Amino acid sequence: MSNNTPKTLDNDLLKQVFVHNLNRIYFGKCYLDKHLEHLKGLASFTALQQAIQEFWDDIKKQIQRMNKVYTLINEIPSDKNCNPIKSIVKDEFCLDEGQTIPVLLDMDIMMYLQLLEHINITSCHMLIMVAKQLNYTEAQQLLTECKDESIDNDELFTLISKEYIVAN
User: Fold this and answer.
1) Rounded to whole angstroms, how far apart are CA atoms 156 and 161?
2) Would you call 160 helix, strand, or coil by DSSP?
3) Other Cβ atoms within 10 Å of 25 Cβ, number
4) Residue 15 and residue 65: Cα distance in Å, rounded?
5) Is the pTM of this model over 0.90?
6) pLDDT tens-digit profile of 133-143?
7) Which residues lie below 8 Å from residue 59, measured CB to CB, with a gap of 6+?
8) Which conformational region is residue 135 in: left (phi greater than 0), alpha (psi within -120 to 50 degrees), or beta?
9) Which pLDDT score is estimated for 168?
């Protein structure tokens, strides 16, 4: 630990950490919400299209939950420092480049969405820990629900990958 790192974060600094990271995943989800229709249209496998729709429905619920979290902690979303997450979301594994074999594009879509879910799982886990320290009990529960949905979506895309591989 460097001499510049405090041994214990005070509540003001913890709240800054919380809001900073909440903003990052919130604006990543908002960007996805606006672009999942296109991604769903790229998928060639019906089960994948259905899974993307389920994922999209969950994104909308997660955005609503995060809006409640902002209200609970008296903050307004700010995309001031959200470039790393937005860059990952916008990159889309270069999915618009097209593939000659549909399975390649479908597998890229699944890997991309699972990568995003892993980022969300990790972010929510950290936010839950900070929320607990700050006694944001209701925010902690809302973020736990977001994390659980992301875990379920990750498992869904894994199952679809297995189905696709076995089916072809």
Assistant:
1) 9
2) helix
3) 25
4) 18
5) no
6) 999 999 999 99
7) 29, 32, 33, 36
8) left
9) 54
Give the separation between CA 118 and CA 123, rounded to whole angstroms: 8
Which residue pairs, CB below 8 angstroms and at least 24 apart, start in 107-110? Answer: 107/161, 107/164, 109/39, 109/42, 109/43, 109/48, 109/52, 110/48, 110/157, 110/160, 110/161
Q: Is 26 exposed, middle or buried (0-12, 13-18, 19+ CB in 10 A)?
A: buried
Nearest of 91, 90, 123, 116 to residue 23 by alpha carbon: 123
Rounded CA separation 167/116 (Å): 25
Residue with tokens 């979303």: 77
Question: Of the candidates 168, 144, 150, which has an alpha carbon nearest to the alpha carbon of residue 47?
Answer: 168
Q: What is the largest CA-CA distance in the chain?
A: 57
**Six-digit token pair at 128?**
């839950």
